[in-house]
Amino acid sequence: MLRIFSTSGAQLAFDKGRLPDTAVWIDLCDPTAAEETLLEALLGIDLPTADDMAEIETSSRLYTDNGVIVMTATLAIGLIAEQPETCPVSFLLSRNHLVTIRYHEVRSFDRFALQIERSPELCATPRAVLMGLIDTIVDRLADGFEYIGREVDAIARAAFRRAVPEARGRQQRRTNQALQVLMTRLGSAQDALSKARETAVSLTRTLTYLQFTIGKDAGLTAQIKMQLRDLNSFADQASYIGGNLTFLLDATLGLISIEQNAVLRIVSVASLVFLPPTLVAGVYGMNFRMMPELGWDIGYPFALVMMLLAAVLPYGFFRWRGWL
Asked: Which of 24, 61, 79, 276 has the smallest C-beta neighbourhood within 10 Å, fewest atoms?
């Protein structure tokens, strides 16, 4: 998809023969090879391909080519939709145009396109478009960090809330499914946080490079510094949320261990209750001739009472000692 915006903020129709004279922002979303070739011929610049944008070397992502500043940043998408992904986006800033290239839908671009329709001054120059677009991306990233923070708080409440007491003062145990849900939510939050942090780092590098290449432009430099301060605050927020996630992961693993110990305790109690009666039953099941109890009229109830006492007395002793 190819969109062209003019200095008035309006979207222009694309004449394949030439670009409109008032074109400022050219947005390419999942462009075809024909569109890339045509724009390269019209603009006289080389557009980075998808393979070029996937490079991780700084020299391949941030450079200047024939007076055109080429910057590729990694942006997180789907943070609030709970399906986080990262995608590379290239910004090509020349004297007359800003060209953006991406291969994924990024809501910040659509949001900024609506903004320039209401405020055409945001689309007055290519540099104004670039900073307005970055400002929208940073705002969207801030929303993502806020969402992740709320999700972590919700996970903490779910992990540490007091269980609803059952009858006789007992508390409900967490099911395996509930613990699995907690672990899944922790993993999703950590995944989203890592992608948001990667975006903040990538944008910081991009803006730092832009700051050193734009020359003397007091207004633009001030905007860049403001965005860098916001991105630096995201680093502190990411560290805080990351620490909470680590704590919650350790706590959840501890809860799993507690539940496992509770199951093992039940097995141990069952062994404690049934093993002594089994021993008594085994003794009186040997049927030796010289066992006087075999001739008693009360031999059978006597054996039952012995088995009952063998089960109750050890259980009562362990309960009295507080071991159960």
From this structure: 276
